[in-house]
Amino acid sequence: MNIILLGPPGAGKGTQARHLVDTRDMIQLSTGDMLRAARTSGTEMGQKVAEIMDSGKLVTDEIVIGLIEEQLTTQSGSGFIFDGFPRTLAQADALAALLTKLGQSLHTVIEIRVDDEALVQRISGRFTCGDCGEVYHDKTKPTSVDGKCDNCGSTNMVRRADDNADSLRTRLMEYYKKTSPLIGYYYAKGDLRPLNGLADISEVTASVEAILG
Ligand code: AMP
């Protein structure tokens, strides 16, 4: 079962993807995570994309399609969760072609709907455990012990360079200009399942589970 989690930055795609990895043995393919890993590993591609990512703009289709293709052809499990990919119509077409080539298909596209004001608040307080990936928020989900991950005990907490007001404005603009047309694209294909991403995390998880069956 291959699924796409579609929604603006801060909608909760990563949080829901992590839940599905834990409970269904699915494989999370986050192009944002792959690009961040490329940056820290100091590769030529990583250096090339660093500035673009910090500004909040999208990196080229060619780069992210290449990253996804590499993962699809080298990993296998109980299905892929595409998190933050596709983000353009060209990426969506490329994904369809790649899946067909591998004899696979797309099960469903879950659109996580949230309003813009909530996104700004969510993103501006967000931080993550650098070791296990658990996501926290200064106001809505702080760690029980200051600076220490509840999940794995690590004190390696990280804040994303692009989680600031300027980058967020650009990221939202990129979302509305380039990614939101995918909602119509997948609706027309009969694959789209929207849900309310403003509910509590556990309620959103329940909605995801209900959709996947
Ligand atoms: P994310 O972690 O999904 O919010 O992505 C962080 C940043 O990585 C984005 O703002 C883009 O600069 C870049 N990025 C991630 N996924 C894609 C994609 N599918 N297409 C283009 N750029 C991407």
Automatic annotation (TrEMBL):
Gene3D superfamilies: P-loop containing nucleotide triphosphate hydrolases. AMP binds at T31, R36, K57, L58, V59, G84, F85, P86, R87, Q91, R160, R171. One of its GO terms (molecular function) is AMP kinase activity. It is found in: Cytoplasm. Residues 30-59 are annotated as: NMP. It catalyses: AMP + ATP = 2 ADP. Pathway: Purine metabolism; AMP biosynthesis via salvage pathway; AMP from ADP: step 1/1. Residues 126-162 form the Adenylate kinase active site lid domain. It is an enzyme of class 2 (transferase). Its main location: cytoplasm. Keywords: ATP-binding, Cytoplasm, Kinase, Metal-binding, Nucleotide biosynthesis, Nucleotide-binding, Transferase, Zinc. Zn(2+) binds at C129, C132, C149, C152. InterPro entries: Adenyl_kin_sub, Adenylat/UMP-CMP_kin, Adenylat_kinase_CS, Adenylate_kinase_lid-dom, P-loop_NTPase. Its EC number is 2.7.4.3. NCBIfam families: adk, PRK00279.1-2, PRK00279.1-3, PRK14527.1, PRK14532.1. Catalyzes the reversible transfer of the terminal phosphate group between ATP and AMP. Plays an important role in cellular energy homeostasis and in adenine nucleotide metabolism. Monomer. HAMAP family: Adenylate_kinase_Adk. Belongs to the adenylate kinase family. Consists of three domains, a large central CORE domain and two small peripheral domains, NMPbind and LID, which undergo movements during catalysis. The LID domain closes over the site of phosphoryl transfer upon ATP binding. Assembling and dissambling the active center during each catalytic cycle provides an effective means to prevent ATP hydrolysis. Some bacteria have evolved a zinc-coordinating structure that stabilizes the LID domain. This is Adenylate kinase. It comes from Ruegeria spongiae. The lineage of its organism: Bacteria, Pseudomonadati, Pseudomonadota, Alphaproteobacteria, Rhodobacterales. The gene is adk.
